Amino acid sequence: MKRNFQLSILCSLAFISSNVLEAQIDSRAYGYYEDALRFSQTTPYGSARFMALGGSGMALGGEIGAITANPAGLGVFNRSQIVFTPGIHFNQAAANYMGNTVDSEMTKFNVAGAGLILNFKNDDLENSKWRGGSLGITYNRTKDFNQKIQYSGYNDQNSIIDAMIEQNNGLTVNQLNGIGLAGYDHYLVNPLPGSDNVYDSFVLGFPDQREIIQRRGGIDQINISFGGNYNDHIYFGGGVGIEMANYSQSRVFTENFVDEPLEQFTMDEWLKVQGTGVNVSLGLIFRPVSFLRIGAAFTSPTWYNFTEESDIYYQSNYDNYDVANWVDDNGNRLIQEDTVLNTLNSNTDLFVSEYNLRTPAKLNIGASLVLGKLAFFSADVELVDHGSAHVSSNDFISEGDNNTIKNLYKPVMNIKVGGELRISALRLRAGLALYGDPYNFTDEIDRSKLIGSAGIGVNFGKAFFDVGYSRTVYNENILAYSLGDASPIAAVENVINNAQFSLGFNF
Hints:
two-stranded antiparallel sheet; 14-stranded antiparallel β-barrel; 7 helices; Porin
């Protein structure tokens, strides 16, 4: 079944304001444009070393964490290797709503990466410029969705009931849908006598509002790649990535009233998306002189197939309110029923859909400056056009979502720099990455992501141990519900802390 459009708009993670929503979102969209961005953005995980370098080093080679960025790096390996990387994901969010700030946090342990490199040397180096190559089989968590956000505040301007009225006005009862239909079913909004398309409510006060949002899941990739070495000057490689994505979200929005017939209204939304995808990558590293390496890599779009499930539970708690008490200025009843309201519950149908998503291709260009065995410095640029994503399905017409993808998202340039200093067996690392704002409008919110990272490692030759830490900072707005210029918005400052620990062996 198709996802309800009003559900997607009223409960979607948001954008800057309802005016931007109206301008950018095609009225025929069902909300799958959100998935196009959600499953296209990735961040540096993999090995602790790769994360500590800010995700840079695609031109360096010889690093297991960078294989997904550039498989040509496999050609730089001169021995086999096995690495295991557990990690800790710690999310913090500070949400400001109606002048009130609420802090939230969530901690999650995970396996950030693991891999096996099998090196095949060419023993006949005197008669051949072919130096051999390596096969890499790796697992990486490329995106972690685990996050908790909550906001609350007293709204002295409006209520979600006003959004129900706005949505319903102009529609007859049999045309109602989404949140407007729920409001009608729960007596929160009612048609006025003598009219079948004008609505009002007996709930007149302003509410204390609260929402708790919990997101879980991630994107995991299994990558199988091979890279070769020609004369220690040209390294090349290719690989296939198998993506496994899962995302779930729970949103519980609550309004509490004082001295009103309605004591509390709750909307509990649940969404689950699961799918698999595949992509291919090709890469090249050129080493014109011993201290310089230049690299380029292309990663194809990921072709996903997803299954989605979603529903909403509504609950309204009344204080034994008799609807006969709702009268106009002349004492005429506005609801012609003999009903006393206490607790009302309802559920939407379980919405199920299957769809395909093509994420954008990625082009990486980078360079590394290698100062012998003392240090190296790397800089990478990643180009991604988020507006090129595409949705298709046999369950719904995707034209509205695809138009929205083109209107709402834009190309970005992600910049990553990092370096490593070697002191005997000790390795000191630091990195910085800036991921561009993918939204195609200008406002007071900068949605780019800034990632600072650092790490330390010890290399004993046959074995090595690395520790990496990264801190990601970015902003987002959350739309409580859509109500024109009066739409209430929570401004959220997110901080994501990641710590990873890699244990590796060379053989």
